Amino acid sequence: MTDEQQIIRLIQSHKQLERFDYSKAVDWAIDLIRQGKETDNVLMLASFSEPIDRFEISPYVTNVLNDFGLEELDYNSAVIANAHYHLSEILDDKEIRKNLRSLYQLCIDNDYDPGLMNFYLIYHGWDELEKIGVNYYFDGADLNNIQDVLKNEARKWIDKYVNGKEVDEFRQTLTTEKEKPLPTTSAISKGAGSANLKDKPLNKLWSWLTGKEL
User: Fold this and answer.
1) Please, what is the end-to-end C-alpha distance for the chain in angstroms?
2) Are 166 and 146 in contact (CB under 8 A)?
3) Considering Cα of 14, then 108, then 189, then 95, what sign does the dihedral take?
4) Where are the alpha helices (H) located in the chain, listed in sequence order?
5) Among 16, 27, 29, 130, which residue's CB has the most CB atoms within a 10 Å radius?
6) How confident is the model at residue 3 (pLDDT cuts 50, 70, 90)?
7) What is the pLDDT of residue 2?
8) What is the rounded CA–CA span in Å between residue 187 and residue 203?
9) DSSP 95
10) How many CA atoms lie within 13 Å of 172's alpha carbon, on the beta-carbon side?
């Protein structure tokens, strides 16, 4: 999946997540204008500036998606799209701690979803290493290797949830996972899965948007 595809899937998830960062949608609209893909809705969306009111901007995001025939994602797909975006940013060395915190919060917001629990644990482990010099959250992580540990978990998550290299019982929904007991901080799990992990194809108008074949 290209960076541009990732951004589009991120924008398609906007209604499903309470903490969605609408500045990403504004940046997307500005990029569309640069590409010469202007519509009235694109121009309106690009005109927003901080602070952004989600209730005011949300209809314009929907309208722009409709302009290009792009459907909004369901909840499970939205969670996967957001996690994928933050993990890709981490792998590209972009605001690693900020993106890790976003994953930590996404895990909490989804009732400590097992598929995101490793990032919750790494977040706390890193904080603990800085405060007291030891980590009781994620086995084997220390201040010398914590970024490498995080990136390794990021690659495994993307392989599992996006590339579909591990296929067993991943068609369970996040709703099912929410019914499971909350893990303790001593339960340092290395990879529980929780949702339909395969990305749905982007709308066929993707080719019109990017000039590329999927």
Assistant:
1) 8
2) no
3) positive
4) 3-12, 23-34, 40-46, 54-67, 75-91, 96-109, 117-132, 146-161, 174-178, 206-210
5) 29
6) confident
7) 78
8) 40
9) S
10) 16
Amino acid at 102: S
Q: Which two tokens stand for residue 71?
A: 């459907």
Q: What is the pLDDT of residue 206?
A: 47
Q: Which two tokens stand for residue 97?
A: 């701690």
Transcribe 102-158 into DSSP letters. HHHHHHHHTTS-GGGHHHHHHHHHHHHHHHHS--SSSTT--TTTHHHHHHHHHHHHH
3-state secondary structure of 35: coil
Q: Supply the pLDDT for residue 193.
A: 39
Helix (H, G, I), strand (E, B) or coil at 99: helix
Per-residue CA distances from 198 to 87, 166, 175 (Å): 16, 11, 17
Compute CA 50 distance to the chain's CA centroid, rounded to the nearest angstrom.
Answer: 22
Per DSSP, 89 falls in state: H
Closest CA to 123 of 141, 152, 114: 141
- Residues comprising the chain, all counted: 214
- The answer to whether 107 and 116 are in contact (CB under 8 A) is yes
pLDDT over 50 at 185, yes or no: no
